[in-house]
Specification:
Two copies of one chain form a homodimer. With 215 residues, chain A is α+β, with helices and mostly antiparallel strands. Helices cover 50% and strands 7% of the residues of chain A. In chain A, helix 1 runs parallel beside helix 3 and helix 1 crosses helix 8. Chains A and B meet through helix 3, helix 4, helix 5, helix 6 and helix 7 of A and helix 3, helix 4, helix 5, helix 6 and helix 7 of B.
Chain lengths: 215, 215
């Protein structure tokens, strides 16, 4: 398999974690998004949306959308499972994951921050305010949902890392770029620290990728 | 079951379609979002994120995040299925659904348009430009993915309406509020027209809900 991705893209981080947890080897292909490498015809042929990550299977099939790909990996490589074995548990884990994947990340990714700058004249302070606003709008309820549920264990759902943890871990890394104050989120922070002790997560972190730069 | 929702919310429309397709009865509870009814303590107790829709089960469990809820309904009420029976087919349908659910809707919902107005001083023209921009960014590749795939049939995936159709139908309704020009999307438009002939879809449309207003 080949992973077409970018070190700092949090959707790419999610997929790297899932591949690591499943013990699947992959070739890493990095796309410098700031140079618009993902808008290159060669990449757009892989994903018409021009968005990383894309997972290229052995037979040349290209899969897009990180959550859809992770569910595919979970179905085709069931061990270890990334979702609980009961429908209500799966609904909870998917909802926690989507609170990050639908209500934070789409608002805060590169293309949106570029629109804010180019079209709406926002400077770095305006972009930082925007980023932190949408994180807070979802991290406050995420913290409450995790802190108040008996289903929360060592990780987001009981004691096995799964889909919600994958999204949480990638988002906390993303937050660091905008110095998000995490003091209001002790449960999220504690789960992040535990995940960071797991090799499959730590190896997927942005600074450890081959295309990582300080920029 | 009780559906806590709002007639014009496209995530609510998705859930109404899924419930209709599954033949499940539900009590409709409408929340006038413009009056911030979803920020009321009674609603926030149901969903700390303060976002519709929420599905309340018989036992009082509250489920949030429309895609997570639809997967729950599909698992607990398998007939008719909303996802294909093969892993690659499911990956394709989930990716098409998420192209709408992650890459359009989160950017264009009420809370974001309100932020643009209140915090960034955007007028109606600025909000309309924003809305149309993100629709175009995702509808262009969605059109291409649908038009170019042999897996596209009468509906998004073969000839059975499913999760991707649910997201497509709800988004096209949403587009109408901002007069999105659909001429560049003939495949999407044709699928929408076919879906609109299905009672489970048409009954879920915003204007046919009990809390619908012209506002």
């Amino acid at each position: 398999m080949r992973l077409h991705n970018y070190f700092r893209s949090s959707t790419s981080t999610r997929l790297r974690i899932a591949l690591n947890l499943k013990g699947l080897d992959y070739d890493y292909v990095g796309y410098p998004l700031l140079e618009r490498a993902h808008k290159d015809p060669a990449f757009v042929a892989r994903n018409p949306a021009g968005l990383v990550p894309v997972l290229e299977l052995q037979d040349g099939t290209h899969l897009s959308q990180s959550l859809a790909i992770i569910e595919y990996l979970d179905e085709t490589h069931p061990s270890p499972p990334l979702l609980p074995d009961d429908a209500l548990g799966r609904a909870r884990v998917r909802a926690l994951a989507q609170l990050v994947a639908c209500d934070i990340h789409p608002l805060n990714n590169l293309r949106v921050l570029q629109y804010l700058e180019r079209e709406l004249g926002q400077d770095q302070a305006g972009k930082t305010r925007w980023f932190r606003h949408w994180v807070a709008e979802a991290f406050a309820p995420l913290e409450e949902m995790l802190a108040s549920s008996r289903d929360t264990g060592v990780f987001c759902h009981r004691d096995t890392p799964g889909l919600a943890d994958i999204c949480l871990y990638a988002q906390v890394w993303n937050n660091r770029r905008f110095d998000v104050d995490m003091t209001a989120y002790p449960t999220i922070s504690a789960i992040f620290e535990r995940l960071d002790q797991i090799d499959a997560f730590a190896r997927a972190a942005p600074p450890r990728q081959p295309d990582a730069t300080g920029a």
